[in-house]
Structure formats: C-alpha cells, structure tokens
TrEMBL record:
GO terms for biological process: estrogen biosynthetic process. The lineage of its organism: Eukaryota, Metazoa, Chordata, Craniata, Vertebrata. NADP(+) binds at residues 10-38, 64, 158. It is found in: Membrane. The keyword Membrane applies. One of its GO terms (cellular component) is membrane. The keyword Transmembrane helix does not apply. It comes from Labrus bergylta (ballan wrasse). This is Retinol dehydrogenase. Residues 4-185 form the Ketoreductase domain. InterPro entries: 17beta_DH, KR_dom, NAD(P)-bd_dom_sf, Sc_DH/Rdtase_CS, SDR_fam. It catalyses: all-trans-retinol + NADP(+) = all-trans-retinal + NADPH + H(+).
Amino acid sequence: MNQKVVLITGCSSGIGLALAARIAKDEKKRFMVYATMRNLSKAGALIEEAGRSLGRTLEIKQLDVCDEDSIKACVDSLPERRVDILINNAGMGLIGPIECQSIDEMKTVMDTNFFGLVRLLKEILPDMKRRKKGHIVVISSVMGIQGILFNDVYAASKFAVEGFCESLAVQAMRFNLNISLIEPGPVITEFERKVYDEGLKTDLSKADKVTADMFSNIYLKNYKQIFETLGQTAEDVAEHTHKIITMENPPFRHQTNTLYTPMTTLKYADPNGDLPIDTFYKMVFEHDKVFNASLNFIKLLRWRSRKSFTLEKDKSN
Ligand SMILES: NC(=O)C1=CN([C@@H]2O[C@H](COP(=O)(O)OP(=O)(O)OC[C@H]3O[C@@H](n4cnc5c(N)ncnc54)[C@H](OP(=O)(O)O)[C@@H]3O)[C@@H](O)[C@H]2O)C=CC1
Ligand SMILES: CC1=C(/C=C/C(C)=C/C=C/C(C)=C/C=O)C(C)(C)CCC1
C-alpha cells in the first residue's frame, strides 16, 4: 500500500497528540505517522491514545524544533528521509505587558514558533522540491491574522509564520507543493493552563497601574470565560486538519472555529484596519456587560446542545 509519510512536531500533548492519534487511526490506513516530541519521557499519553496503531501506523521519535541536530537526526532516521506531509505544530504562548517580559523570554517564543518552522523546512523542503511532492501544514492561529490584547509577542510569532508561508507559497506551487495554515481560535489544551498560570505569576511591578489593572482585571478575568465559551477541543482541530490533508486541492488558510469567525471577519472587512481594533476596544471597555452577556448566552446554547446530544446518545444505546 502506498502510505503517505506524515511527520508531526509537539506530540506530547494537546493538538499534536490528538493529530497524531487521529491521522494514525485513518479509516483507510492512508498514513504512516511519525509523531515527534522533544522529551520522550512525556510519551505516555500518546502511547495510551494511539492504542493499536502504535508500531503499525504510528511511531514516536525525538525532535526538538529549537535544535537543528535533533531535526536532522530525526529526518535521517526515516526511510529514504521521505516526508510527504509535514505538520508543524510545536509551539508556545506568552501573555502579559511587554514591560514585564524579558527579551530572552520573547526570543524563546520566536525561536520555537517561528524559527522552529524555518529549521524544519530547511531540512525537509529541498527533498520535497526534488520529489515535486509534498504538503506543508502549519498550526498557526487566529492570532496569525489578528492581534489580541496582551498577546503582542505570541501574535508577532504567528504573523511571522504566516508572512513566511505566504511568501513561500508561490515558489512551492512551482514545485507542485501545497502549504496550508490551520488557524484555530482558543483550544482547551495544556497551552491554555500554562499560559494562564504564567500570566497569574507575572511580576506586574514594572507596569504602570492602568496597564497592570487592564491585564489582571480585564484580560485574565475574561480569559477562562473565553476558553469555556468559545474553546474547541484538540480532537476537533485534529478532525479539521485530517480533512485538509486528505483534500485534492487543500486551501492555503483554514479557520477551525466558526464561533470565532465574527472576530476575524472584522479584519477582512476594513482595509484601514481600524474596525477590529475599535471593536475589541468597545467590547472590553464600553460594552463589557453586553460582551459578557453574549458569552454567557453562547455558553448556555453550547451546554444545551451538548445535553441534548448526550440524551440522544443515551436513548440510542
Ligand atoms: N491552545 C490554543 O488555544 C491554541 C493553540 N494554537 C497552536 O497550536 C499548537 C499546539 O499547541 P497546543 O496543543 O494548544 O499546546 P500544548 O502546550 O498542549 O502543546 C504544545 C506542544 O509543543 C511542544 N513544544 C514546545 N516547544 C517545543 C520544542 N522546542 N520542540 C518540540 N516541541 C516543542 C510541547 O512539548 P513539551 O510538552 O515538551 O513542552 C507540546 O508537545 C501551537 O503551535 C499553538 O501556538 C493555535 C491556536 C490556539
Ligand atoms: C475575543 C476577545 C478577547 C480574548 C480572546 C482570546 C483570549 C483569544 C485567544 C486565542 C488563542 C489562545 C489563540 C491561540 O493561538 C478579549 C481580548 C478578552 C476581549 C475582546 C474579545
């Protein structure tokens, strides 16, 4: 059988883990998945989730996207160094006022989210070009097209990824290669917990009172609520991505969360760029009660539809 080789980064948790398991369990067994992570001692959750696909359509390998040697060693270990589909997923978040973040912290975010992709492509792209076959899939974010309050550096890293891929896409086309940017909104994973916990620990003494207050009492206060209301599961994002890699003509950009699209649409609706900024400002500072009421309303609708789905399932069992 002519299986496609899929290499995925950052599979110890969240979206990477869900993606590796979903693609390895493809109904038609179309893929051989190399699920990679920087620290193999964290493989337990993936091993459990992979079940019978482990050793058949899924293998686990070490790869740190910040370490060129580890990328090369991983690619060299693959049969004929072949990668048909690269899924660049490894990434990290960072929130807070820039006054309270060190340049080193910011560099780590850029190094992981942006240069991680660049390092992988430097290793894999020449072979894909030679074979004139391949699909580069990047887990970007809605923050790859739209900045969000207190996500300055994280959004910059995702904008960098998007600018890089958009530039590369024309060249890729010449070699019959596809590039797809997957743009999830909030997803309930370790990312959310890590970013929130780090956010709570931020030393706000370097920020002025207005900024510190905005971060604690507006951003952090709304953060959990946004994830609870609009958040998707990692499995949901994996399902979208599985669909993208099985398409004949995959799109360049794909947003996974329809509840979030009203926000991103604002970006495309105004060439001056003021509309999303004004709207976010008003949502936060002027219409916060309406904004919170809307979130609660969406939460209620989602709870009711989940409840009726469970009842239907119970009836049919
Ligand atoms: N959760 C969300 O709301 C959203 C997430 N995204 C993006 O999705 C991707 C996955 O995040 P998500 O699953 O949510 O978060 P998780 O924190 O659950 O997963 C991140 C993964 O990246 C890995 N990673 C971090 N640094 C490196 C590195 N140097 N080399 C290899 N792997 C590394 C982590 O490994 P380790 O366990 O060793 O730290 C982990 O496996 C990221 O690119 C993120 O930006 C996009 C939109 C929304
Ligand atoms: C929508 C919205 C907010 C927060 C959005 C968040 C928190 C989005 C998180 C997205 C993530 C985590 C993407 C990862 O790549 C604010 C600023 C509270 C108020 C204005 C409207």
